[in-house]
Design goal:
eight-stranded antiparallel β-sheet, binds guanosine-5'-triphosphate, 32% strand, alpha+beta, 5 domains, 17 helices, binds magnesium ion, Elongation Factor Tu (Ef-tu), domain 3, Alpha-Beta Plaits
Amino acid sequence: MQQSGPDKIRNVALLSHSGSGKTSLAEAMLFDAGAITRIGNVADGTTASDYDPDEIKHRISINLTILPATWKNTKINIIDTPGYPDFVGEVRAALRISEAAVILVCAASGVEVGTEQVWGYTTDAKLPRLIYINKMDRENANFAGTLEQIQSKLNPRCLPIQIPIGSQKAFKGVIDIIAKKAYAGAPAKEIEIPDAMMKDVDSAREKLIEAVVEINDEIMTRYLDGGEITTEEIYKCLSESILQGAVVPVLAGSGLTNNGAVALLDAIVDYLPSPVTAGPVKATNAKGAEESVKPAADSPLTALVFKTTTDPHVGKISYLRVYSGVFSSNSQVWNVNKGSVERVGQVSIPHGKNQEAVNQVGTGDMGMVVKLANTVSGDTLGVKEHALKLTPIKYPAPILSKAVFPKSKADLDKMSTGLARICEEDPSLKTQREADIGELLLSGMGDTHLEIGASRLHRKFGVEVNLEVPRVPYKETITVPVEAEYKHKKQTGGHGQYGHVLIRMEPLPPGSGFVFEAKVVGGSVPKNYIPAVDKGIKEARMEGVLAGNPAVDMKVTLYDGSFHPVDSSEMAFKIASAQAFKKGMLDGSPVLLEPIMHMTVTVPDSFTGDIIGDLNTKRSRVLGMNPNQGFNVIQAQAPQSEVLLYAIDLRSMTQGSGTFTIAFDHYEPVPALQTQKIIAAHKAAAKQE
Ligand SMILES: Nc1nc2c(ncn2[C@@H]2O[C@H](COP(=O)(O)OP(=O)(O)OP(=O)(O)O)[C@@H](O)[C@H]2O)c(=O)[nH]1
Ligand SMILES: [Mg+2]
């Protein structure tokens, strides 16, 4: 493929609700542009974009994929993204490296939850965009109805620049209402505009002109005065309106039957910005000051690594977007985030799962390289002398955690390295050891996300695991101050055992942790045994007395005891201290403590009642509600045990339209009823072991 200057590149993310046809449409565009010679399909797992074994198995996109096509002497990097909400991390990465977006809406399903979400993302990112009403060939396809939903739910200034000829089985092609030309079939051929549609074409054209001239005072005044507006002027106003987000053009077609893809390729080249049009991006220099990075080939290299994958055969692959300068084969670059040199071997241009070896990747383009030593997703590669850090990709915080259990001993050995690697590949996955309960957690955006993570762990790193609902890290504490005494004394032939301690135990405020202090006077417990006392208490504390949980928020003071010059030993003092501690715990009116999470739940107004009702069944406290543009933002606190699977519950209660964030807040005593259940469950489990 010929290398293109940054003014001849379009980096365009395909976004939509899941299953609106992004991958199929990308396939049609690639075919029309001659980048592939056969149109594959999702059902057979033969598309250029969905090549990962998990994508083929589940027939959904999971990863973002770079799919270059050359059209009208311009390189279009089509960036296919997953629509399934669990993989929103990939969407975030795609948005970060694109100058524009094409949002697909299914002509039969209309505006869906995911459509509104991606609309929101592109609004926030201020990306110029086109809307493509796809699946015009499908049963129940309805262009007018879908357009109406787009205008009422997204923005009234989404206006057609094409209208379809026929729909469903009778869908034939599209009419370009500006040029007043009709096209049908695949490959598209110009046909006569059907007479019956002339009126519709004229009225849609008038509406479009009326909206786009607003961007230019002179042209608008002339238009309002009834003056002539040339087709060139319409194009000019439309382009500017799109770049400024004042108008979002709507196109139509069918990716599956490859009808309308050519017009979309045209529109991408004609209306969406190149890296040059989009202008410089922001970066931070070594002093922490902001600088702008111009998309110029003769500037020093600045590139963002936006994705990392591991291939069992070739090793680590880093994908990057060049913002300035060139990324050359067999060079040395500076990893600005790590402050270290990276040796670069052969550089390539990604084409879906394939790659094309090149001498260099130019400004504005996408590249890939294998075996970078220290680089991870989000790092900036540049030059040491003028190190600029690009804004990293904002990944969503995980909302669902599962405990990971190895299937065999061999799996156990490789598990933590494997987990670290899949988290490096997908930064919206996180792993963390829950020390108190000895579980390794994998956290992500939903059940499917975690399952796919586990499948990747197996396929790429040979580690087989089971995912289970994690245990809640309960804790225990006392509620009243107590004193406890224990004398460990045994006379068994020869050497006896003797250790004797008196301890004071006092509750501390929540969050204080555990404190041990030795305050013995007159050597009643000799100094050299105090570490053993400390150890005995700390070991006993990890077990608690109610349900095997660590005791916290208390202070234990060793204040007295006695010893025997021959029979005392570290072991004897350790045993005595542990026993004294257990006695003290039982006497100190112990309670279980449970983690309370803070949640911010955002749901459409219509779901507020159901969500609050459900939160009430989960022993939670609603702290506040803030209406915000048709949504309600609910602040609540809930015990972790009740919301371990909230990501799954919320999605099913709101058909995917609700989102939330969750974070640990504090510990609180468990109510009596739940305490009994937890203790009973603990006893039953202990019996089984
Ligand atoms: N009738 C019809 N079906 C289509 C069209 N485009 C896609 N499909 C079907 O819709 C399903 C989903 O298509 P994909 O191309 O995988 O959709 P996607 O948006 O990439 O899906 P995700 O990546 O999972 O979000 C597949 O069964 C396609 O065959 C279309 O234009 N017309
Ligand atoms: Mg897809």
